[in-house]
Amino acid sequence: MNKEKRRVPKLRFPGFTEDWEQRKLGDLYKRVNERNDGTLGRDKWISVAKMYFQDPDKVQSNNLDTRTYVMKKGDIAFEGHPNNEFKFGRFVLNDIGTGIISELFPIYRPITEYDLDFWKYAIQLERVMAPIFAKSITSSGNSSNKLDHNHFLNQELLVPNIEEQKKIGTLLSILSKNITLHQRKLEHLNLKKKALLQKLFPKNGERYPELRFPGFTDAWEQRKFGELFEYERPDAYIVKSDNYNNDFNMPVLTANKAFILGYTNEENSYNKPSIIFDDFTLDRKYVDFPYMLKSSAIKILTSKNQHNLRFLFERLNSTRFEVLGHARHYIGVVQNTSTLCPSIEEEFCISNLLTRLDEIITLHQRKLEHLQLQKKALLQQMFV
User: Fold this and answer.
1) What is the tens place of the pLDDT at every residue in 119-150?
2) Which 3-state string (H, E, C) describes 97-151?
3) Which of these, 300, 292, 331, lies nearest to 233 by C-alpha position?
4) In whole angstroms, how far apart are CA 127 and each of 66, 79, 123, 146?
5) Nearest to 132 by CA among 165, 75, 88
6) Backbone φ and ψ of 238, nearest 5°
7) Strand, coil or helix: what is 212?
8) Is 269:250 a contact under the CB 8 Å cutoff?
9) How far is 74 from 32, CA to CA, in rounded Å?
10) Is 264 helix (H, G, I), strand (E, B) or coil?
11) Gap between the Cα atoms of 189 and 366, Å rounded
12) Tens digit of pLDDT for each residue in 330-366?
């Protein structure tokens, strides 16, 4: 019973019930050393890391000598540079067309019926390939591994029939294209926001922005951040225990990239919209939900005199501050730094536009993350 479970994936398309077949890699691939005879020039130089044809102007002419190999569509190449994701290095599959690569990358060509999309993902699954790599490579330094070709080709793995390969490959290919589409949409929205920020705020030395809402014509006025922000120490909102649990509801925040450190069941939270500002690093985050904090180095900022906090956050982000090393900056630097502000009414118009744009960006980010998690789950369950 256990043997049967090991030979079939957890998730399958209807109609497929038979065991995956155990095959030697040498039954599926052969090692090839096809030299470039000069017909392939700089426009066909392949960047193996991300599998694309490099800009010909960036390829050195002395690379195009007899030390290059021809790599055809469907071939795989071994990249023996371990990293956090690929402990032993990884294989990459050529899905772009015939080109040339350095002889540093061993190439293997399929010798049997083969679904390109299926193998594109199968050969990059660390949990599938790592046991094979562990037996087939020798270390040649701190940053690269060398594949033992004969040993590698004698290694075995489980393979479905060609019909099931095509089903799996097609599904993962469609999902990957959808992920790429959402990534591009997200990049476009972020660029759009960046362009808007450049036009909605005055350029250096000017007091009028390039783009304004109808009815606003007055010059922006200079204000010190100390006139715009109230600040509060975080002492009353610091967690007593760092025993975080995802089953708890209260987020524990930091101002740096990590943002949410975990969740606590403690209840002495801060409950108003605010900016958390790291007094040492100058990192900051706009927060509009209840939270607790871990670090006493955080300053909690709120707005004075009816200024719009969301607008002030963008002014804070667009201002360069003098960095004093590992020192507290808010009182000594930030409070005395000046920025330009419009009327309260114009602040709210700008804030509402940016908030709406942020909501759209967040929606696309969540869709992208959902698709990435869906793909990760499928890769775990559709391969043996």
Assistant:
1) 999 998 888 888 888 888 776 555 678 888 88
2) CCEEEECCCCEEEECCCCCHHHHHHHCCCHHHHHHHHHHHEEECCCCCEEECHHH
3) 300
4) 36, 17, 10, 19
5) 88
6) -85, 135
7) coil
8) yes
9) 13
10) strand
11) 14
12) 999 999 999 999 999 999 999 999 999 999 999 999 9
